[in-house]
């Protein structure tokens, strides 16, 4: 069977700072290939809609799967679905991925016949079951795990038996030199684990996986890294090296094999402080950039986002990360309630520290607790604005002034790290990239003013809206976390962490989910 996997276009933030390998889609494509199907993959981050339609008309796929990991891509996916249906009336069109797993019926209603089903949960198992059922039974998909159509829901989505069983079909991505993140140009992506055992109110990583947490064996990780040609590696784990021993075993195995790459990872400040020796080892192996999700610079903000790590611990983690002599990036969540003074305080703090600071906007998403508990009503229902770069909740400042303050804060931080002074500091990096024909990082240095502009963000709010997200339910004081889960929680047995790490997690989270 001819199967086409489709990744949608870049979002606002990724137009400048990164363009990541579509790892999840490559894993789904690999599962389909292993089952004997003929598979193609097109990444619209690197190719155009014209390229997509040319491929569809020439190759005439029988099944087309769109990746819906990001809410802001929903209108593009639906429009492409309608256009594809007009070209190939008999093709089977499905959508899967993280964000759409929380709103499958809504996606189907928007599709109005252009989308046959939504696959919720992990894609590797679901796509094999779907393709097998489609070959045998046509559109009778009632037994496909995680499959939702307008008239039925299949059995609950199923996990892959082992993360060791899945290896991405990287050979299907036709523009690998275009993938990068910051200085790592080009960069491939890899996962060491899936899931998150914490329960931050603004995040849906833990609700998607039901607070389950699984790891690849160190042997499998090393085998996969040995096959990757790119010098840069983005470790996609939601929180890297939760289980310190696992991180040490991978690192020691890489050292024995003599494998050296340049790594970018994301972790928590308290995990960094708990597993210092792990990060020291990875520094020696080539750890280049560490992203810490601080989220707030005061205790009140941390409490709001249910991050039980204290402010002093976060600052201690920053100090330790600096001692590793790597690039440290942090995230701060801007709340729509911020006024000019609050923006100034944040700007001043960010300029005082050496770290790269990213500012995102507090945005409630389906699958998060804030989607149910946030008392402020949405000011827009346009999917395209749910990208953490637009305000979708009421702002204390008039919206034009909020964007002016936000962009000025982002510009100050961008100039600090991507301006002429920073350019001189990283001149050697730029030259090395250019000698290899890599221009992603260099182009990034000049793109800010063409993408981040208050007038453009305001204009986005004035776009005509074809597809609107449903309003969240009325504000609830408390939400039963298990009601948000996509994959069923396996309780303690579903988390591949030792007893002491489980105790550490429980001591540093504030929820009651199992």
- Overall helicity: 25-40%
Beta-strand content bin: 5-15%
Main pleated-sheet profile:
7 strands, mixed
Low-confidence stretches: none
The end-to-end span amounts to 41 Å
The strands making up the biggest β-sheet line up spatially as: 3-1-4-5-6-7-8
Q: Which structural category fits the helices and strands?
A: alpha/beta
What is the total tally of β strands?
Answer: 17
In DSSP terms, counting alpha (H) and pi (I) runs of 4 or more, how many helices? Answer: 21
Q: Rounded to an integer, what's the Rg over CA atoms?
A: 22 Å
Q: What's the rounded overall pLDDT mean?
A: 89
Q: Judging from the principal axes of the Cα atoms, what is the shape?
A: globular
Tell me what the structure shows.
By secondary structure, the chain is of the alpha/beta class. Helices cover 39% and strands 15% of the residues. The chain has helices at residues 23-34, 49-59, 74-87, 104-111, 123-137, 205-209, 218-227, 244-257, 269-274, 276-285, 299-304, 311-323, 340-352, 369-373, 399-418, 420-425, 427-435, 440-444, 448-451, 454-461, 499-507, and strands at residues 2-7, 18-19, 38-43, 63-67, 92-96, 117-119, 147-149, 152-153, 180-181, 187-190, 193-194, 214-215, 232-235, 262-267, 287-295, 327-334, 356-361. The strands form four sheets. The protein has a seven-stranded mixed sheet with strand order 3-1-4-5-6-7-8, sandwiched between helices. It has a six-stranded parallel sheet with strand order 10-13-14-15-16-17. The radius of gyration is 22 Å and the shape is globular. The chain starts with a strand and ends in a 7-residue tail after the last helix. The model has no long low-confidence stretch (mean pLDDT 89).
């Amino acid at each position: 069977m001819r199967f086409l996997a489709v990744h949608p276009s870049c979002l606002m933030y990724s137009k400048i700072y990164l363009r990541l390998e579509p790892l999840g889609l490559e894993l789904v494509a690999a599962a389909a290939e292993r089952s004997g199907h003929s598979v193609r993959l097109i990444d619209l981050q690197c190719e155009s809609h014209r390229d997509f339609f040319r491929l569809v008309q020439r190759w005439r796929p029988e099944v087309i799967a769109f990746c819906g990991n990001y809410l802001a891509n929903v209108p593009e996916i639906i429009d492409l679905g309608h256009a594809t249906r007009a070209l190939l009336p008999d093709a089977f069109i499905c959508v899967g991925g993280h964000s759409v797993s929380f709103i499958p019926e809504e996606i189907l209603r928007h599709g109005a016949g252009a989308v046959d089903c939504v696959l919720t949960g992990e894609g590797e198992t679901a796509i094999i079951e779907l393709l097998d059922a489609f070959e045998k039974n046509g559109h009778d998909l009632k037994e496909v795990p995680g499959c939702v159509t307008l008239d039925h829901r299949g059995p609950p989505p199923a996990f892959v038996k082992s993360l060791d069983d899945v290896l991405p079909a990287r050979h299907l991505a036709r523009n690998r030199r275009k993938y990068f993140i910051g200085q790592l140009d080009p960069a491939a992506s890899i996962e060491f684990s899936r899931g998150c055992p914490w329960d931050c109110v603004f995040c849906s990583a833990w609700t998607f996986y039901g607070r389950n947490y699984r790891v690849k064996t160190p042997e499998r990780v090393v085998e996969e890294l040995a096959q990757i040609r790119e010098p840069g590696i983005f470790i996609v784990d939601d929180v890297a090296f939760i289980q310190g021993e696992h991180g040490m075993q991978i690192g020691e195995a890489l050292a024995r094999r003599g494998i050296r790459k340049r790594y970018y990872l994301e972790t928590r400040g308290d995990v960094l402080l708990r597993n210092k020796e792990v990060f020291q080892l990875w520094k020696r192996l080539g750890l280049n950039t560490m992203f810490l999700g601080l989220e707030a610079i005061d205790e009140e903000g941390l409490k709001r986002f249910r991050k039980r790590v204290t402010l002093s611990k976060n600052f201690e983690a920053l100090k330790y990360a600096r001692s590793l002599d790597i690039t440290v990036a942090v995230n701060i969540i801007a709340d729509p309630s911020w006024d000019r003074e609050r923006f100034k305080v944040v700007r001043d703090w960010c300029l005082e520290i050496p770290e790269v600071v990213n500012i995102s906007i507090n945005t409630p998403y389906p699958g998060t607790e804030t989607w149910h508990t946030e008392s402020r009503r949405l000011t827009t229902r346009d999917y395209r604005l749910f990208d953490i770069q637009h305000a979708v909740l009421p702002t204390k400042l008039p919206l034009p002034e909020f964007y002016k303050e936000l962009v000025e804060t982002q510009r100050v931080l961008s100039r600090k790290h991507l301006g002429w002074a920073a350019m001189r500091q990283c001149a050697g990096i730029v030259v090395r990239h250019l000698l290899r024909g890599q221009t992603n990082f260099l182009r990034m240095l000049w793109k800010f003013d063409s993408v981040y502009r208050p007038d453009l963000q305001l204009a986005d709010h004035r776009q005509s809206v074809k597809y609107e997200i449903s309003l969240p339910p009325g504000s609830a004081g408390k939400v039963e976390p298990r009601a948000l889960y996509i994959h069923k929680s396996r309780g303690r047995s579903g988390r591949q962490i030792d007893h002491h790490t489980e105790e550490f997690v429980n001591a540093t989270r504030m929820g009651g989910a199992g």
